[in-house]
Specification:
Length: 154
């Protein structure tokens, strides 16, 4: 509710001040791989991506109303960007974060769009993606509550 993101290098001690304080409108969830920081801003339908080496620069905004509908989470891992487009029932995947920053379309789009559906080949309000280096996990919210696992092909 403070519309701020506090950044420390490592785990801070009790009295240690943050290295950076970033202004952000209604930040919801954060993800970083050490190179990039992704900030999900559900209310604005955006994902802000910062370069960690230069956090004083303005972020690159990805999405917005008309692109995403209430995205609940994003994940940056192994140079990839994953965005759960909750309201539109899609999961977007960029194999290279730089492609997303350059405004290119996602490399992979999983989901059916339209109304949420629980089924083998459908998504029901996909929210929080997480990639562990072997599997892509996707948590759905509200009436589904499923945790989906995808096995990426080499």
């Amino acid at each position: 509710q403070a519309n701020k993101i506090y950044v420390w290098e490592g785990i801070p001690s009790k009295d240690e001040d943050p290295v950076y304080t970033l202004e952000s409108d209604a930040p919801m969830r954060l993800s970083s791989d050490g190179t990039y920081l992704a900030v999900t801003r559900t209310d604005d339908h955006l994902i802000d991506v910062y370069t960690v080496a230069d956090l004083e620069e303005s972020p690159t905004a990805i999405g917005g109303r008309g692109t995403f509908n209430l995205p609940q989470g994003s994940e940056i891992a192994d140079g990839h960007l994953f965005i759960g487009d909750t309201g539109n029932n899609y999961l977007y995947i960029w194999e290279d974060v730089e492609d997303a920053l350059a405004g290119k379309s996602a490399d992979i789009k999983i989901g059916q769009g339209g109304a949420p559906k629980i089924g083998r080949d459908t998504l029901f309000w996909p929210a929080n993606p997480s990639y562990d280096g072997s599997y892509l996990w996707l948590g759905e919210v509200k009436f589904s509550g499923r945790l989906l696992r995808f096995s990426p092909e080499e």
